Each structure stands twice: as structure tokens, then as C-alpha cells.
Amino acid sequence: MLLLLDSASLYYRSYFALPESMRAPDGYPHNAVRGFLVTLDRLIQRFAPTAVAACWDADWRPHWRVDLVPTYKTHRLAEPGAGEGVELEPETLGPQVGAIAAILDAMGIARPGVPGYEADDVIASMAAQHPGPTVVVTGDRDLVQVVREGVQVLLAVNGGMDRWPLLDVPAVVDRFGVHPHQYVDFAVLRGDPSDGLPGVPGIGAKTAAALLAAYGDLDALVLAAAGSVERPLTARLAASLTEHAQAIQAARTVATAVSDLSFVVDPTLPDSPADAAMLRTLTDQWGVGRFVPDV
To answer: Domain spanning 180-255 has what CATH number?
Structure first.
């Protein structure tokens, strides 16, 4: 079984879930490092994977997505003067992210990333290409789109891991009212403030689900909006869909995780560290030796 981690989602979650009073021997906060390693250990114990990949954002806000939707993730940009495309993050998180990356590398845990693409794209590609069972762990609902037979998503929301829903196809339908292959269209219609996707005026989650249940996908829905209008489509919604048709298609491309990336990565779960001496140095420095999974 392949375990795919949305690394940024998990280390951000750890950073904000645990207090900064958790400190390394030098007094620097290690809450994100500690929380990430504890989460990794619990996931390995729960799923007993044969392979693990901590997928990485080589580019958290790719230009090709911004060109299509200029508002894409603008709320997460650092203040002017910080540099183009610099992500706003707490001052004490950056060094911990570097430590997490170095510890994973020393452990021998694969950390794939592709220039010009986000971790979501890496995850979607690895999930599509892996022939066996796969579990994706993320706090990003957009990755619901990768759920299919053999691919589940453990959605890191609402409290501790024991409360995180493990979503297969029926669970996605039950939770969101749409099939996983409709989720991108659902998100585009409803909008997603967390990614800066505006949505279609007048369409919320319930209306989006009802429209997709009736028409199947965005293409059929936009086509229907240009013709005769029948319930659940109304004249007002049809006009809004027609007016925003170009923006809808752009947002759809932005929200769709790329699933055909090519990369060379061995996600096999190691039975010993790739660099035991470096791992010991790092875990001593950060005071997290007892939290490193025994793989």
C-alpha cells in the first residue's frame, strides 16, 4: 500500500495545533517538527504501508495557474517587498520546514516535487500511476478529486486523527453530494476562498450539487444554460453561467490536479535510515529523537 502525504498541509496543521512552548534544546520552537513526526508515525502504524512519499510543493503558486486565475492563492502572498511569489508564513515555521525536509531525507523517506507544480499535482500523478491501494493524507478538500476504486483520502480536518474521515467513493458522495470525478466542477461552481477561486455568483454547495446531479458536468451545464432552461437550472443561474463561462473554464483548469507528471522516485518505506549519522544529529539538534518513526 502506498501512503501519499500532502506535506505542507500536515506541517501547517501541526504548527497551529501544537503550542510554541514545545522547544528544541536550543530553545527554538519545534512544534511543527514534533507534530509532523508524530503524525507520520501514527499513519505508518495505522496503515502499515509498504511505500511512503512525503509530497512537496516545488512551486506552491505556479505561474500557469496564476495566469488563468490571477486571484489564485493571493491571500497567502507575503507582504510587498518580500519577493515575487513568496508565501506568507509564521516566522518560526520556515526553519522547522527545513528541518522536516532534512529529517525525511536522512530517514530515506521519498520527498518528490516537480518544478512548476504543487504537491497536489505530484499526489494526483502518483495516485494515478500506482497499481495498488493508495491512501492520500491531506487537509485540502480539493484532493477529493483523486478518490477512485483503490484510492482513498484521509481528510485531516476537525480535530485529531481519530476524527479524520477516510473517504472512498460512497463516502465522498455522502459527504459532498457529488461523485469524486465531479468534485472539481463542484468546487468551481461553489467557489473556494481558500484557493482564491471565486465561484459562480448565486451558486452555493447545495445548488452546485443539484446542478451536477441533473447535468453531470460543467460542459453539459454551460451548454444547457445557453439553451432552454429547466429546473434545477433557473433563468438567473443560466445567465450567470453564460456570463462567467470563460472564467469557469479557467478555474476548472486551475482546480484540476495534474495527473500525468513524470518523475523518478522510489517511495519504498526504508527498513533503516538513509543517513543514520545525519538523522541522529538532526533529531538531537531539534530534540525530537523519540518522535521519529521506527521504520
So the answer is: 1.10.150.20
Whole-angstrom distance, CA of residue 166 vs CA of residue 159: 14
* pLDDT 10s digits, 184-216: 999 999 999 888 899 999 999 999 999 999 999
Cell digits for 52?
Answer: 511512503
State the CATH architecture for 2-169+258-291.
Answer: 3-Layer(aba) Sandwich (3.40)
Contact status, residue 140 vs residue 6, Cβ threshold 8 Å:
yes
Stretch(es) of the chain classified as CATH 3.40.50.1010:
2-169+258-291
SS (H, E, C) the chain: CEEEEEHHHHHHHHHHHCCCCCECCCCCECHHHHHHHHHHHHHHHHHCCCEEEEECCCCCCCHHHHHHCCCCCHHHECCCCCCCCCECCCCCCHHHHHHHHHHHHHHCCECCCCCCCCHHHHHHHHHHHCCCCEEEEECCHHHHHHCECCEEEEECCCCCHHHCCEECHHHHHHHHCCCHHHHHHHHHHHCECCCCECCCCCCCHHHHHHHHHHHCCHHHHHHHHCCCCCCCCCHHHHHHHHHCHHHHHHHHHHHCCCCCCCCCCCCECCCCCCCHHHHHHHHHHHCCHHHCCCC
Q: Are strands 51-55 and 151-155 parallel, antiparallel or unpaired?
A: unpaired
**pLDDT tens digits, one per residue of 56-109:** 999 999 999 999 999 999 878 866 444 455 677 899 999 999 999 999 999 999
